[in-house]
Amino acid sequence: MSNTIANKAARPGRTRSSRRANGGLFVSGSLLVWLIASVSVHLVPHQASDRAGAPLLLGADAPLAVTDVFAHACVNCHSEKTTWPWYSHVAPVSWLVEGDVKHAREHLNFSRWDNLEAADQRMLLTAIGTVIENREMPPRKYLALHPEAKLSAEDSIRIIEWARGERRRLRASTPTVAAK
To answer: How many CB atoms lie within 10 A of CB 18?
Structure first.
């Protein structure tokens, strides 16, 4: 028994380093299994929309400078032209990304702008101006992985002014019901 204690005392770090190595292998192996399992859970590719090729804001009077801002900052979530990043195919992150995109499209979908009534378009234009002015869009968690989506001061002003002008244009083009 004293011989075993003497051997351990002579090599005190070997047991710890062996445990660390085994722990590291376990963690690496677990991550590999998780990655393979999560990719197999999400084998179905993201379904392409029939509107993926349609122009954004169909029916709106949006200058190229505005649609360019939307293209780099908004379309991944608020249209059906989403470019799905690699991590959107790995569960459980894929569930979060897909949920965020679904939620964003439910609030505002530039690919289906032409399906909206003028009153709904005006309401959304007000919301667009407000969230841009309050710096609520694009969200910080999105910008953490997509810094190219950050809006400059000029981009923000361009969108806010466009939204106000488009709202005025829609109001002027909506026929008023005459009182009888």
So the answer is: 10
Global confidence as pTM = 0.71
- 149 within 8 A of 94, measured Cβ to Cβ: no
Q: Show the beta-strand stretches assigned E in the chain.
A: none
Residue 168 and residue 60: Cα distance in Å, rounded? Answer: 12
pLDDT tens sequence across 12-45: 555 666 666 666 778 787 777 766 666 665 555 5
Task: Specify whether the CB–CB gap between 129 and 161 falls below 8 A.
Answer: no
* Cβ atoms < 10 Å from Cβ of 90: 18
At residue 51's C-alpha, the angle toward residues 92 and 148, to 5°, is 55
Nearest Cα residue to 61 out of 152, 173, 177:
173
* Percent over 90 (pLDDT), the chain: 54
